[in-house]
Amino acid sequence: MTVIRGKERAAVLPLAVAGLVVSLFPIVYLHVVAVGQLSPLSHTISDYIFVDNGSGLLAVTALSLAAASVGLLVVLVRRGLPRRGPVALLLGLWAAGLTVAAVFPTDPTGAPTSLSGAVHRYAGAVMFTSLPLAGWLISRRFIPSAPVRRFSVAAGITSVAFMVSHVSLTYDGQVLLGLFERVLFALLYALLFALAAAVSREVVR
Length: 205
Known about the structure:
Keywords: Membrane, Transmembrane, Transmembrane helix
Strand content: under 5%
InterPro entries: DUF998 (IPR009339)
Largest sheet: 2 strands, antiparallel
Helix content: over 70%
Pfam families: DUF998 (PF06197)
Strand order of the largest sheet: 1-2
Radius of gyration: 17 Å
Transmembrane segments: 12-34, 54-75, 87-106, 118-139, 151-171, 183-204
Oligomer: single chain
């Protein structure tokens, strides 16, 4: 039975990593085609829905990332992570937040906050809080991994900076929402890839 579970984990993990890789292509493409239209300093990634085909491409990124995260959670649970513990809950909230944020788009810059925009923002707050906490708990209690711990701490600090940037952090008259969010997403991707690598080492043992 143990051998079968090991094979199951080994089968799910490459799919999760593939989901992470696939999720990168649409968002990188949008950054390229939107040069001159959106500022990476002041516009958030969610603003790419206003670029041609942006809504669908962002949905692919968000849903692929959510699916990959669920795959990592499945591997962790099969390895012994409690299904009803805080880590499983936090990873589930991260994946759910991504999905909700994809379903409820943001508002245009300067427009009044709509119901969809409000839901999008709260989903983002849940996402950006949950994953760094989950990574930190995993590195402390479940799989000792210095990269996972470091990326979790860095992402947590950047998440706070991103939230503060909504009201006070500016440069040359621009609110630095976009800059902090992009740094945050880079750290979250690094955290997920580091977690996949850490889990992979555990599976091989």
